[in-house]
Amino acid sequence: MKVTVIGTGYVGLVSGACLADVGNRVVCQDTDRDRIIALKEGRLPFHEPGLDELVARNLAEGRLSFTTEPGEALAEAQVAMIAVGTPPGEDGAADLGHVLAVARTIGRHLEGPVVVATKSTVPVGTAEQVRSVIAEELRRRDRAELPFEVAANPEFLKEGAAVADFMKPDRIIIGTDSERARQVLARLYAPFQRNHERILEMGLREAEMTKYAANAMLATKISFMNEIAGLCERLDVDVEQVRLGIGSDPRIGYHFIYPGAGFGGSCFPKDVRALIATARGHDFEPEILAAVERRNAAQKRLLGRRILSLFGEDLSDRRFALWGLAFKPGTDDMREAPSIPLITEIVRRGGRITAHDPVARANARRAFPAEWEEEGRLRFATDPYAALDRADALILMTEWKLYRNPDFEQMKERLAEPALILDGRNQYDPAHLEELGIAWIGVGRANPSGRARLLRSMPQKENTR
Question: What is the DSSP letter of 10?
């Protein structure tokens, strides 16, 4: 099939490359000329495992191409996918400016029948707006007779595993009121399943709501477990044992019940806020979703509060090592990353940070004021162990595989005394670290003896603020 993907961000590029890899002819169009030039040369704008090989192969074999020209992209297209951003507005609601601009572009350049599918995460009713905008542009061209259908086809891709998610989906949502659109999209996705067993057909509005509800549910599980972790600490309960106990219940499962430093990324925070805004815009107060957002905001401040409780509010002459900048492993995405408020708090209090991340350093540099690095308040190490030298504590923020089984003896030698790890992902075994003489503080995992010993030995500075 001939497929046009408009938008070469995360969703658009992954979708385009994967569709090309099963034999479709895919044209990806974007208004960012520099990005298109880079993509034509096989240079990707973000890190996603396996995607660079996929793009290079399909470019070389002629199934995948890139252009800035919408007319060229839409020529002979059977399916046109809208995969542009829906950034939050001031009230948290999704800004549909880019989506509707693409709809206008399609209406201005359409020359034959096409199924327009929204891949972007959009509020309920967006597909209907897209259809209206395209129809209006066709009327202005005196081409109102041109047939087109609209479908809601949300993506369910995890950053760091997006290629695998697209190639082996757990479900494919096709929301439409058109039988032709349903048939065309079912044929497009046939290579990714057997006997259509993974296709779920529903209405336009139900498909749009499904995407938001899915992300909101996962975000809720994370915030719920973070809240339980906070209670566990106060009750001298090990949340890890609780996690194993509840996760063994198949009605709950183990996914998304790992307590930590809060969730980030381009989806969960934005989509929770957008759903809250939608609810309030329809005179419905989303009590649970509002609590999810509040809990996550508080969780992102958790490690910062612990640092202040240990070292005092004035962090002058204090230096910290930080492992992991991206919001999750497998990506260089810094959007809403929990590392950002933590680093900001430490630097604002006069502290210094040396951070390491396998792939996110370039994006991290853009997330903070340039003068912080120029003045030495924030440094980026290329070696994780080099970041530890004379640091008052190591803060683990992202659970990259690189950090899972480190050389603890070397860590102890490099860290200042007493060696301390603030484990924002509960990655390390506190009993093992205690044997090595390394103090450890996790999330929801009470370690009273180690923490008491640490507090007694920690030199306290007079609070000058």
Answer: H
Mean pLDDT of 225-249: 96
- Decide if 65 is inside a domain: yes
Same domain, 244 and 109: no
- Does a structural domain hold residue 431? yes
> 206 in a domain, yes or no?
no
Rounded to whole angstroms, the Cα distance separating 134 from 120 reads: 17
**99, pLDDT greater than 70:** yes
| Predicted local confidence at residue 196, as pLDDT | 67
DSSP secondary structure of 122-169: --TTHHHHHHHHHHHHHHHTT-TT--EEEEE------TTSHHHHHHS-
d(CA 307, CA 350) in angstroms, rounded, equals: 13
Quick one: which H or E segment has residue 321?
A: strand 319-323
Does the pLDDT at position 452 exceed 80?
A: no
User: Would you give the DSSP letter of residue 177?
Assistant: S
Question: Range of 242's domain?
Answer: 212-298
Q: How many residues does the chain have?
A: 465
The answer for residues whose C-beta is within 8 angstroms of residue 122's C-beta and 6 or more apart is: 86, 94, 96, 99, 152, 208
User: Annotated active-site positions, please?
Assistant: 267
Say if pTM beats, i.e. exceeds, 0.90.
yes
The fraction of the chain above a pLDDT of 70, given in percent, is: 95
In angstroms, the CA 415 to CA 461 distance is 19
Task: Write down the pLDDT at residue 193.
Answer: 86
